[in-house]
Design a protein that fits this description.
Layout: H1 11-24, H2 30-38, H3 43-53, H4 61-72, H5 77-86, H6 93-110, H7 116-126
Helix pairs in contact: 5-6
Length: 138
């Protein structure tokens, strides 16, 4: 498995892939994550990293990912939460579930401690009213 490269586009997806990489290749200590990720930054991302690191101590992985998102992401965490909470099923359940899972993965970058129950409750509340109304339904 190759470590993902990052040039500045799609920071949330890059962080998700990095986290997956670190889970699979579990030999990395927490303090090795930022240096390892930084050597896979290119172009404007690499330039940003160089200026970001000037005069500071090595950040934690969490601090680094937050700073990366603040610099390169188009959305702020509050917008993601709002989008997630307003999500309603319009088409089929599969399409709705895919959108829920996509937003969930991005939210967990910012809010690592959100319980699964939160996501389940939001999923259920966004389902169309006619879902589950079979015999003996509402």
């Amino acid at each position: 498995m190759e470590f993902p490269k990052f040039e500045g586009d799609g920071p949330r997806n890059w962080i998700i892939k990095c986290n997956r990489y670190f889970q699979i290749v579990s030999t990395f200590l927490e303090e090795q994550k930022v240096p390892h990720a930084s050597v896979h930054m290119e172009g404007r991302a690499e330039l940003w990293y160089q200026s970001f690191m000037e005069g500071i101590e090595l950040p934690t992985w969490s601090q680094f990912t937050t700073a990366t998102l603040e610099r390169f992401d188009d959305h702020n965490p509050e917008v993601l939460v709002g989008e997630f909470n307003k999500l309603q099923q319009k088409g089929n359940v599969t399409t709705y579930l895919k959108k829920i899972e996509e937003l969930k993965s991005h939210m967990l970058i910012f809010y690592k401690d959100l319980p699964e129950e939160f996501f389940l409750a939001s999923f259920i509340s966004g389902l169309r009213d006619d879902i589950g109304e079979g015999e003996g339904g509402k």
